[in-house]
Amino acid sequence: MTGSGLTREIILHTKRNEYRRSVRWICCGLIGACLCVLFFSSLGAAKLVNRIVAVVNGEIITLHELKTEVQGGGPGIDQSGPESAQKSQDMQRRVLEAMINDKLIKQEAERFEIQVSDAEVDAQIEQIKKENNLSQDEFEQAVRDQGMTLDGYRQAMQEEIMKSRVLSNMVRQKVVVGEDEMRDYFEQHKEEYRQPQKVHLRIILHPDRGRLEKVRESIVSGDISFAEAAGSVSQGPGADQGGDLGVYAWKNLRPEWRDILNHLQPGEVSQVFSLQGNYAILALEEMTDEQTQSFESVKEEIRQKLYARKLEERFSDYIQGLREKAVIDVRLQDAS
């Protein structure tokens, strides 16, 4: 895929999910993830029926804008079947609610008179180009492919940076996860951080039992290692990796395998046994007992989990507060 094609796919993919994942892009703290709304199609499509579907503090959202966003999320939606009309209406309602939220955040940025310099916009463009390995020409082509001018793109980017700062100041910076919260969560959810008993196994598989018995004797006597024998004899999985089967949770093994391994210590080899019309021997490389991870080892994971939860709650409260103070007139039913 060409550079411009790659950028276009990134832009479209991000745009399809922006309104449904508004909290997620706050979490990651990357303005680049917010730039998906920069590629609105031109509103100059000739004589489209462009009715108003919502008015937010005097600013309108048109049917054309709404349909552009809904179509952006369309590939993940099944449009066939008797329920497609209802699905389409539900999607329109969800996207419109998210667009209203976006409009409110933009208005807050304007109210706070947040300023974004040309240098900051330039820096973001350079970051996008760097992350996607794009030349200036490839980047500009991606912008044109979306029906935008570079000036229009820069203006939309500036608005997105402004909105991002509002959310950072009013949402993200007000979310704090304390040490005691993390410890309490760990104590209450220790089962989530319990590691089961595990075994690391190797196997040699061969159709001739007598041949495999001799191979086992050579391994036990030390004439050849299990891995070497597997490489030269085994007709089973992982033969070219010394018969390595990898690591398995003890509870997930077949009962007959557990019976065989119960008699082994790490480094020992099983007796020959039947397996799916062939014969096999197992080597127990390592066995780890069931254990609970330490708080320190999972502390950052818990922090991120609690942070995301509190961030979503804070975002929801903040948006609800904006909506309660706003004058919002939804006319979607009249425009459907």
Overview of this structure, please?
With 336 residues, the chain is of the alpha+beta class. Helix content is 53%, strand content 13%. The protein is built from 13 helices and 9 strands. It has helices spanning 3-17, 22-28, 63-72, 84-111, 118-131, 136-145, 150-170, 179-188, 209-221, 226-233, 255-261, 295-325, 332-335, and strands at residues 52-56, 59-62, 194-195, 198-206, 244-249, 273-275, 278-288, 291-292, 328-330. The strands form 3 sheets. Strands 5-4-7-6 form a 4-stranded antiparallel sheet. Strand 6 and strand 7 (278-288) form a beta hairpin. Helix 1 (3-17) packs across helix 6 (136-145), helix 2 (22-28) packs across helix 12 (295-325) and helix 4 crosses helix 7 (150-170). The radius of gyration is 30 Å and the shape is elongated. Mean pLDDT is 80; it is low at 1-48 and 74-80.
